[in-house]
Amino acid sequence: RYTRDGSGDLLALPTAADGAFYWQWDGSDFVPAQVASWSESLAVLLNLPAVGVDLPSARAYARWVAQRTELPYRLPTEHEWEKAARGVDGRTYPWGDSFDPSFCKMRLSRPGPARPEPSGVFAGDVSVYGVHDLAGGVAEWTEPGASAGPYAVSRGGAWCDWAEDCQAAARRLYGPTERSERVGFRLARPAP
Q1: Cα 147 from chain centroid?
Q2: 137: which DSSP letter?
Q3: Residue 170, C-beta contacts closer than 8 angstroms, at least 6 positions apart
Q4: What are phi and psi of 6, to 5 degrees?
Q5: What span, in angstroms and rounded, lies between the C-alpha atoms of 74 and 65?
Q6: In 10 A of CB 121, how many CB atoms?
């Protein structure tokens, strides 16, 4: 919960692994802080996927959206996420079985230092179900199954990952309150 005067719970604000805020309250609005290292353009920064949030914060956001829209939004389960990425044929990447770094946002997609880009920029990173950015962009929190034990699970590749991390079957374990510049989230809800 946040208010325009800057009060509220700052624990859910996106932060880098070292605790530095990606965005900072200047007394009247949130302005780029750590996130400014990724672009000089405010328009670009405002369109980057959210990263640096922990699993409880992603869940809280899903509950907030569900309450505001009166629709059952939540994080996808690991199984749902993988099905959306692999389709019925179990493909290695959302577009098929061979890798091409120009199809998704990962560390070799563009020359120069890797940095995040807005969602949807890589049109080739789309599954047979029309879901975008599953191989690259940012990895995403999922609701872990029992096999994850006490850990949180991210699925998908990210802007700073290698090709093997972009495979639809790839997963990483984190502590539930851990934050990473490569992990964000997407919301899901049952089909009507």
Answers
A1: 22
A2: S
A3: 155, 156, 157, 164
A4: 90, -5
A5: 9
A6: 15
Q: Could you give the CA distance from residue 130 to residue 122 in angstroms, rounded to a whole number?
A: 13
Letter for the amino acid at 29? Answer: D
Tell which residue, 127, 129, 121, has the closest CA to residue 104: 121
Number of other CB atoms surrounding residue 31 within 10 Å: 14
CB within 8 Å of 70: residues ≥ 6 apart: none
185 contacts 141 by C-beta, under 8 angstroms: yes
Query: What pLDDT, on a 0 to 100 scale, did the predictor assign at position 9?
Result: 55
Number of H helices, E strands in the chain: 3, 6
pTM for the full predicted model = 0.89
Residues 127-150: tens digit of each pLDDT: 999 999 999 999 999 998 888 889
Q: Are 131 and 110 in contact (CB under 8 A)?
A: no
Q: Residue 12, exposed/middle/buried by CB under 10 A (0-12, 13-18, 19+)? A: middle
Whole-angstrom distance, CA of residue 139 vs CA of residue 107: 13
Tokens, residue 114: 């890797």
- C-beta of residue 52 within 8 angstroms of C-beta of residue 14: yes
